[in-house]
Amino acid sequence: MKAKADDKVLRKVFGGRNPVRRLFTKQQQALFDDHAPPGVTMDELEVLGPLNILKLKFDPKGYSRPLVVELWFYPDGSQILELSAKCLAKEAFSAAAETKAFLASHGVDLSAPQQTKTRTALGLLTSVQAGSS
User: Fold this and answer.
1) Which terminus of the chain is more solvent-facing, meaning fewer CB atoms within 10 Å of its CB: N or C?
2) What is the pLDDT of residues 28-37, one digit of tens each?
């Protein structure tokens, strides 16, 4: 459930001048309310970050589907690069094989350790937050 956020609203929320709920659509707020632990409201959530993220969508030559590349910059100086492609569920295995072959043919090391960008961000940002308290 994605939605675009206005830069002015983001700055106000990150600066503590607007409540967190202003970042979310009514539909997203309802989803949160339906699934949040009892007694937890959206405005009690803490803003972590910000993080700098570069995102590029492109159609590489020799590959049959668009790719998205994201480069996440973390407060400890580390980075995570993520490449992703979308496909139908029934195409998952063939798309994965095609993507793996394409990346390998361009010298991308596919044996590097895998980590999720969000889990890494949460771990680093919560440790930074705890250190500043």
Assistant:
1) C
2) 999 999 999 9
- CA Rg, the chain, in Å? 19
Q: What is the 3-state secondary structure (H, E, C) of the chain?
A: CCCCCCHHHHHHHHCCCCCHHHHCCHHHHHHHHHHCCCCCCHHHCCCCCCCEEEEEEECCCCCCCCEEEEEEECCCCCEEEEEECCCCHHHHHHHHHHHHHHHHHCCCCCCCCCCCHHHHHHHHHHHHHHHHC
Which structure tokens are listed for 63? 């590959």
Please state the pTM of the whole predicted model. 0.71
Amino acid identity for residue 104 in this structure: A
